[in-house]
Design a protein that fits this description.
single chain, 139 residues, Alpha-Beta Plaits, 17% strand, binds guanosine-5'-diphosphate
Length: 139
């Protein structure tokens, strides 16, 4: 059975460029309900932990630096089949390959500074939501 939540982050460059509002509007228009949301800056250690699965990848160090370089918006989004629906809304990891009308096509700078994160599985959506939010921070 498909799950109904996914975890997103609006990444530092997108926040810095003033795209948090427009991205949240797209999320809203696409029919996601916000269960939880916070504006925060990840420490280097937190970014390392969040992206631990990519530890062996050549871009890991740069990614951790980038993700801890400025404030982000983290949110749990609710919708039927949320993981797949949100990945469709955000588009491909590399914004030059993202479909027109997707968040990354509109607001991403490059493959690293690609505007938003979206969970890649129901299992990870739960792990990532627990990483950011306690029970009393969800509505
Ligand atoms: P996602 O699920 O679409 O976010 O993509 P991945 O899980 O494969 O990668 C996680 C994040 O690492 C991406 O969102 C990018 O910020 C970054 N990333 C992925 N591939 C590359 C790459 O080839 N080079 C760099 N610099 N960053 C990358």
């Amino acid at each position: 059975m498909n799950g109904n939540i996914t975890l997103t982050m609006i990444k530092p460059t997108a926040v810095k460029n003033g795209y948090a509002g427009p991205i949240l509007a797209m999320i809203n228009q696409a029919g996601f309900r916000i269960q939880a949301m916070k504006f925060m800056k990840l420490s280097k250690e937190q970014a390392q932990k969040f992206y631990e699965v990519h530890k062996a990848r050549p871009f890991y160090k740069d990614l951790v630096e980038f993700m801890s370089s400025g404030p982000i918006v983290a949110a749990i989004l609710e919708k039927e089949n949320a993981v797949e629906a949100y990945r469709e809304l955000i588009g491909a990891t590399d914004p030059s390959k993202a479909e027109k009308g997707t968040i990354r096509h509109r607001y991403a700078g490059n493959i690293q500074e690609n505007a938003v994160h979206g969970s890649d599985s129901d299992e990870n959506a739960i792990i990532e939501s627990d990483f950011f939010f306690s029970r009393v921070e969800r509505y």
